[in-house]
Amino acid sequence: MVEITKDILFAKSVLDEGNIVAIPTETVFGLAANGTSVQALKKIFRVIGRPIIYPLILHFGDFNSITPFVNGITTDVEQLANAFWPGPLTLLLPRSKKVPDIVTAGSNRVAVRIPNHSMTIALLKSLDYPLAAPSANPSGYISPTKPQHVEKQLGQSIPLILDGGSCKSGIESTILGWENGIPTIYRTGVITSDMIAKVLGKAPEFNKKSDVLEAPGMMSSHYAPKTKTLVTDDIPTLYDKHKNEDIGLITFQQNTGLKIKKEIVLSSKASLEEMAEKLYAAMHLLDGMDLDVIIIEKAPDEGIGRAINDRLERSSFKK
Predict the structure, then answer these.
(1) For residues 8 and 1, what is the distance between their CA atoms, to the nearest angstrom?
(2) Contact, 69 vs 130, CB < 8 A?
(3) Which among 111, 124, 192, 257 is most buried, taking Cβ atoms within 10 Å?
């Protein structure tokens, strides 16, 4: 049975032995292993059922620790690091020979970030290697934002969860790289395009979808409950189509008054930040209620709302 602890030194000892540990960040919980050990990294892929063609993010405790693992730090990188690290921004940079192929799925670029969580930063600073850590859930399923989510999904397969409480941002980091010198967003997140533009003095472009997984979190079907999930900006119409089924509903701002088995309002104050923080926890709750369908209201398509809607679109995508 998995052990849940706040003991950073114990977590360090487990990682030093080549094992995996679920760690908290400000975004979601990650399933971490020594980012320089191929054998340790293979355990991540095996436990979560993640295809080895999917790249991972390397997590560091400070900026200086990153430099041996990348080739070149540009002015853009320094500006973004000063503005957003520690924080929910991942940068896709040219990798050095210290990065194993398994981390990048063979790409010549590596995804790096400094998470904004005091417990995990303390852990990272105690190690002499970075941690590679995808979200701590079976591949494609809802990301975990509480230790209990990890325990439910992976508790029989991992030795340790480092308990840092609930994640504050609630959705995965923004991923930014450069294409021919042009800043390019590969995955939207809490750090928005407008925020990046203010730092760099130029607006980033958005990566056009392709069959090549150039960065983590680019799969079409992702963040998905096991229960059939539908996303809409017209709840009454979709409700009418499914009113004879057991429905769970997640709304942005207000209760609908419809006859629904379980309805969760994410933010009575119409806060997109609060919606992002609570979204995955609400999805986990409804997915455990033996419902026929989960209906989720889209967020306003602005600021963080774009990142929320990206996650919702992937959660409802079925191949």
Answers:
(1) 19
(2) yes
(3) 111
Q: Which of 171, 173, 226, 220 is nearest to 196 (CA)?
A: 173
Query: Residues 186, 218: contact at Cβ < 8 Å?
Result: yes
Kindly report the average pLDDT of the chain as a whole number: 93
Residues 6+ apart with CB under 8 A from 307: 171, 174, 188, 189, 190, 192, 276
Query: Any idea which fold 3-206 has?
Result: DHBP synthase (3.90.870)
As a 3-state breakdown, the chain gives helix, strand, coil percent values, each rounded to 5, of 30, 20, 45
pLDDT in tens, 192-227: 999 999 999 999 999 865 444 555 655 555 678 999
What are the tens digits of pLDDT across the range 112-122? Answer: 999 999 999 99
On the question of pLDDT at 182 being above 80, the answer is: yes
Q: Which helix (H) or strand (E) holds 112?
A: strand 109-113
Domains 3-206 and 229-316 alike in fold: no
Q: Which residue type does 21 have?
A: V
Fold held by 229-316? Rossmann fold (3.40.50)
* Residue-range domain boundaries for the chain: 3-206, 229-316
Residues whose CB falls within 8 Å of the CB of residue 197, separated by 6 or more in sequence, listed in order: 203, 204
The residues facing 21 across adjacent strands are 32, 160
Q: What is the pLDDT of residues 236-282, one digit of tens each?
A: 999 999 999 999 999 998 888 898 989 999 999 999 999 999 999 99
Q: How wide is the angle at C-alpha 318 spanned by C-alphas 315 and 319, nearest 5°?
A: 135
On the 0-12 / 13-18 / 19+ scale of CB atoms within 10 A, 319 is exposed
Residue type, 204: P
Instruction: Fill in the amino acid letter for 69.
Output: F
Extended strands (E) in 7-116:
21-23, 30-34, 57-59, 89-94, 109-113
Q: What is the pLDDT of residue 212?
A: 43
Report the amino acid identity of residue 249: L
Is the previous residue joined to 86 through a cis bond, with omega within 30 degrees of 0? yes
Is the alpha carbon torsion for 272, 276, 86, 50 positive or negative?
A: negative
